[in-house]
Design the sequence.
């Protein structure tokens, strides 16, 4: 039977609310910052992460949710692992926030900067870089963006934005 996808709807939650949910999801499911998120998706959530190398232009990331524990995250073949880590967490934001953990079949393609994408970005940042742990690492490494990025397995731009959003000193 073919899945009928619904249009995803934003939660309209605040950045703090989304961050709280993301950190709780990571904690309850045992995701450790800096660990292999692809293995986590397969092991803990039953999802699949794949590279979409047959379409031009290649997508920067998208998710297709068919049901609980039945979803595929598509990555670009042209991005680096640190970028892919954030993309996977971003797509998990759509899974947890917008498909209601698979209860609503959805298909989300990254299209611009709308509320849906903003919410998924907030989720990804908090999931990968929990506020308390990130703040401690930021202080320990004196705000060295490269070292902090390596610790969490994300790009330096993700670290810069997270530090700015948490209002950490430069």
Sequence:
């Amino acid at each position: 039977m073919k899945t009928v996808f619904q249009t995803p709807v934003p939660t309209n939650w605040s950045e703090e609310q989304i961050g709280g949910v993301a950190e709780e999801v990571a904690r309850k499911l045992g995701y450790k910052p800096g660990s292999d998120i692809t293995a986590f998706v397969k092991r803990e959530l039953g999802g699949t992460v794949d590279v979409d190398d047959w379409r031009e232009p290649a997508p920067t990331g998208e998710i297709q949710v068919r049901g609980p524990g039945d979803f595929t995250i598509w990555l670009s073949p042209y991005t680096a692992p640190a970028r892919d880590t954030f993309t996977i967490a971003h797509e998990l934001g759509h899974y947890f926030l917008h498909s209601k953990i698979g209860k609503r079949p959805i298909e989300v393609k990254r299209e611009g900067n709308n509320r849906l994408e903003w919410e998924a970005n907030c989720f990804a940042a908090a999931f990968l870089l929990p506020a308390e742990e990130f703040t401690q690492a930021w202080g320990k490494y004196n705000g060295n963006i490269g070292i902090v990025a390596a610790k969490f397995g994300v790009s330096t731009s993700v670290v810069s934005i997270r530090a700015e959003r948490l209002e950490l000193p430069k």
